[in-house]
């Protein structure tokens, strides 16, 4: 039976899944004799804060501050990428405070996530894990774009203008909006990412590389730099990988890039724990509004997207004694009829329950029949701010 089916058949609540995640982290620590930090992101959820950002660093720093001096730390990472500056802050914090830093990849660690992983003293990957081409993501206007793709597009338009003497009106309009400062910023962001990888490979990944594997020759600093530059060049060559979001699997990294990777699947007990961590995280993402997980065996912080739904019409002349809500499940579309009581009148309960409404839940959450956990704290805040009253539970 697949792990996903195993957990689904148990019909575990989100709170039980959270407890299972902490149990798995504890089991991992016992097996590896290390301290595991899980940083997992719901990559497919269309939420602006899904990419790596500075608030992620602050949470990681906060949860690990009490563990400074721990000899070995492993970080399970799944992210679509994001801020290169945040990646730098995370890596420097980890290596400045822990003796050995390893990264575990069983899902996607793309772009800035790849940059972070390449700083590891050890990299552990499953068959499902993937890195991506080295790149920086930039905000251009209203969009987040790949620095490499942006520079490549500008280069194509420059070449087209030189060869044809003119650009089509649409491209000409787009190019006219590019400032020299913006172009320079994109170029510098791309070089920044490449230089980070080179420095981190030399200082961290190759830290204990003293002799060559086959000929047993002493490894010089020049050999480390040449090797780091070769790896960085291959990973920044998007013509090799075709797409910014291309998945670079463990065999690509070992056979094409010649990077030393620990195969998680070759250790059955470790593989079972890592795949279960990945599965539990995915179930939490699929069944709740959670989009980021930060967890150790001691603490956890979940970031949730709080839907407010459609605007709730509340009379402004006189504060009401009850507000009725129709909340649609984002997963299956079922509409849940809820009433929020603002007055202790017991007649309110009788009236609304008779109409098929349910009272506003104590924990501001309802579980849909499809199993999705709907977070209502945003709606609660909206009602209480607009009416100036507290919802009575």
What does this structure look like?
The chain is of the alpha/beta class and 393 residues long. Among the domains are: 3-132 and 247-304, 2-enoyl-CoA Hydratase, Chain A, domain 1; 322-387, no CATH class. Helices cover 45% and strands 18% of the residues. The protein is built from 14 helices and 16 strands. It has helices at residues 3-10, 14-32, 54-64, 84-97, 112-117, 147-164, 169-176, 180-205, 221-236, 238-241, 250-256, 268-287, 346-354, 377-387; strands at residues 35-41, 72-78, 100-105, 108-109, 122-125, 130-131, 137-140, 143-146, 262-263, 290-295, 300-304, 322-328, 335-341, 358-359, 365-367, 373-375. Strands 9-5-3-2-1-10-11 form a seven-stranded mixed beta sheet, sandwiched between helices. Helix 6 packs across helix 8. The longest helix has 26 residues, at 180-205. It is globular and about 85 Å long. The mean pLDDT is 85.
Major sheet strand order: 9-5-3-2-1-10-11
| CATH architecture field of the domain at 3-132 and 247-304 | Alpha-Beta Complex
CATH fold group of the domain at 3-132 and 247-304: 2-enoyl-CoA Hydratase, Chain A, domain 1
Q: Please, what is the oligomeric state?
A: single chain
β-strand percent reads 15-25%
Whole-number mean pLDDT: 85
* Structural Rg: 25 Å
Helix content: 40-55%
Order of helices and strands: HHEHEHEEHEEEEHHHHHHEHEEEEHEEEH
Structural class: alpha/beta
The count of strands amounts to 16
Count of alpha/pi helices: 14
Q: In this structure, how is the largest beta sheet organized?
A: 7 strands, mixed
| Uncertain stretches of 5 or more adjacent residues | none
State the separation between the terminal residues, measured CA to CA: 42 Å
Overall spatial form: globular
CATH level-1 class of the domain at 3-132 and 247-304: Alpha Beta
């Amino acid at each position: 039976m697949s792990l996903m089916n195993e957990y689904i058949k148990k019909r575990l609540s989100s709170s039980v899944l959270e407890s299972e995640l902490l149990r798995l982290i504890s089991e991992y620590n016992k097996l590896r004799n290390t301290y595991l930090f899980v940083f997992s992101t719901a990559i497919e959820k269309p939420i602006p804060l899904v990419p790596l950002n500075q608030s992620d660093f602050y949470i990681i720093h906060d949860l690990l501050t009490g563990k400074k001096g721990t000899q070995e730390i492993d970080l399970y990472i799944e992210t679509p990428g994001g801020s290169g500056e945040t990646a730098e802050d995370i890596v420097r914090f980890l290596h400045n405070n822990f003796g050995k830093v390893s990264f575990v990849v069983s899902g996607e660690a793309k772009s800035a996530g790849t940059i972070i992983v390449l700083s590891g003293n050890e990299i552990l990957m499953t068959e499902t894990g993937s890195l991506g081409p080295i790149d920086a993501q930039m905000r251009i206007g209203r969009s987040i774009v790949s620095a490499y793709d942006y520079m490549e597009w500008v280069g194509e338009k420059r070449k087209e203008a030189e060869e044809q003497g003119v650009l089509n009106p649409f491209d000409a309009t787009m190019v006219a909006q590019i400032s020299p400062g913006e172009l320079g910023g994109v170029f510098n962001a791309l070089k920044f990412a490449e230089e980070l990888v080179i420095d981190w490979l030399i200082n961290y990944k190759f830290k204990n590389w003293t002799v060559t594997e086959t000929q047993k020759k002493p490894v010089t600093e020049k050999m480390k730099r040449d090797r780091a530059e070769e790896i960085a060049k291959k990973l920044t060559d998007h013509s090799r990988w075709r797409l910014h979001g291309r998945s670079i699997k463990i065999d690509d990294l070992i056979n094409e890039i010649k990077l030393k990777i620990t195969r998680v699947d070759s250790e059955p007990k470790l593989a079972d724990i890592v795949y279960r961590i990945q599965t539990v995280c995915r179930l939490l993402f699929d069944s709740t509004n959670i989009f980021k997980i930060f967890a150790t065996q001691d603490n956890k912080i979940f970031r949730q997207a709080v839907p407010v739904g459609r605007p709730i019409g509340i009379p402004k002349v006189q504060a009401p004694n009850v507000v009725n809500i129709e909340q649609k499940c984002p997963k299956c579309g079922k509409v849940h009829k809820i009433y929020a009581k603002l007055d202790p009148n017991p007649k309110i309960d009788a009236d609304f329950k008779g109409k098929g409404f349910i009272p506003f839940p104590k924990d501001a959450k309802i579980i849909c029949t499809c199993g999705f956990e709907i977070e209502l704290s945003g709606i609660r805040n909206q009602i209480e701010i607009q009416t100036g009253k507290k919802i009575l539970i």
